[in-house]
Amino acid sequence: MAKRKQLKGSAIYINEDLTNINQKVLMTIKRTLPENEAVWSWDGKIFQKSSKGVVRPIAYEEYKHWVGADWPKLINRFYSIK
Fold first, then answer.
1. pLDDT exceeding 90 applies to what percent of the chain?
2. Nearest Cα to Cα of residue 57 among 73, 39, 31, 32
3. Is the whole model's pTM more than 0.70, yes or no?
4. d(CA 18, CA 44)
5. In which domain of life is the source organism classified (predicted)?
6. Average pLDDT of the chain, as a whole number
7. Burial letters for 57-70: b for 16+ Cβ neighbours within 10 Å, e otherwise?
8. How far is CA 19 from the centre of its chain?
């Protein structure tokens, strides 16, 4: 995983195996960001880089904002797994 940047520009991608909630948030943010910003996951956490180059983790408290109406469905699925 640490060397996955070496594959940038090739047709090969390595992605983390994220929880349903993290995957949904990551994909939602990717679809809404302008081209000059970035979002990625590392060690199960989601990070966002602004157009000014500021990198910040996406806090769990922000997830509801990103997934909107799907939030209750995702939470119920996440907590019903035993």
1. 23
2. 39
3. yes
4. 6
5. Eukaryota
6. 83
7. ebeeeebeebbeee
8. 10
How far is the first Cα of the chain from the last one, in angstroms, to the nearest whole number?
29
CA–CA dist 15, 1 (Å, integer):
8
Which of 48, 18, 24, 47 is CA-nearest to residue 34? Answer: 48
Place of tokens 């966002």: 48
pLDDT band for position 69 (50/70/90)? Answer: low
* Strands laid side by side in the 45-49 sheet: 38-42, 45-49, 55-57
Query: In the numeric block, which tokens belong to residue 57?
Result: 């983790």
Q: So where are the chain's domains?
A: 17-80
User: For residue 13, which amino acid is it?
Assistant: Y
Q: How far apart are CA 68 and CA 62, in angstroms?
A: 10
Written as one letter, the residue type at 51 is S
